[in-house]
Amino acid sequence: MERRNSDRIEDLQNGYSIIQNDEYFSFGTDAILLAHFADIKENERVVDFCTGCGIIPILLAAKKTDAHITGIEIQKELADMAAQSIELNELNASIDIVHGDIKNVLDYVKHGVDVVVVNPPYEKADTGKQSANNFVNIAKREIMSSLEDVISSAGKVLRTGGRFYIIYRVGRFAELMERLRQYKLEPKQIALVAQRQGQAPNFALVEARKGAN
User: Fold this and answer.
1) For 54-105, how does the pLDDT look when each residue is reduced to its tens digit (9 = 90+)?
2) How far apart are CA 60 and CA 38, in angstroms?
3) Buried-most residue among 8, 26, 125, 197 (CB within 10 A)?
4) Predicted confidence (pLDDT) per residue in 119-164, tens digit
């Protein structure tokens, strides 16, 4: 995989760096919030859906839990960029990047993983202002994968008692709760996030557990 002239390397201030490229899709604060919210324990098997540029696997690796992390990304260009960042940080022993569709998750990882994390597309495919950049549209909108795809795929691959971590827009919170329970993922912890003090929250961080009461 060759680096592009438009690539840049950003220092994550945690001992690691990441390759970014504005022609594709750059990570935002929501990915950082999710990585800090996810409680990863020693030697767990973790899968990151919609991994994009690979930011969440790298931030999880910085927790030094010796977890093994697989990032799955449907856009080849982003998957390649994520793989380059993993190599740049010499994290190949603990992180795998897969170019694939989360709807086929069992083709890439075996059933029984401990944790699934996901920063998914928030918008329905036909709502809001479309971006001229198709990479951004696919990352932000349910063009290639829907909320139900994300949650049903997590249900397929998680072990009983396994944990699911997601960040999602508050405007679709009721739908998120409905889908989680539909696929036997019981919400256990919720944190609401506002952009500024005194404002209404716009994001919800949720931990759910498979098969819990």
Assistant:
1) 999 999 999 999 999 999 999 999 999 999 999 999 999 999 999 999 999 9
2) 8
3) 26
4) 999 888 777 677 777 777 888 888 889 999 999 999 999 999 999 9
C-alpha pair distances (Å), 61 with each of 49, 68, 69, 209: 16, 9, 8, 22
Rounded CA separation 44/42 (Å): 6
What are the CA-CA distances from residue 166 to residues 51, 80, 134 (Å)? 12, 24, 23
DSSP state of 37: H
- Using CA atoms of 66, 71, 77, 80 in order, give the dihedral in degrees to the nearest 10: 30
Distance CA 106, CA 153 (A): 9
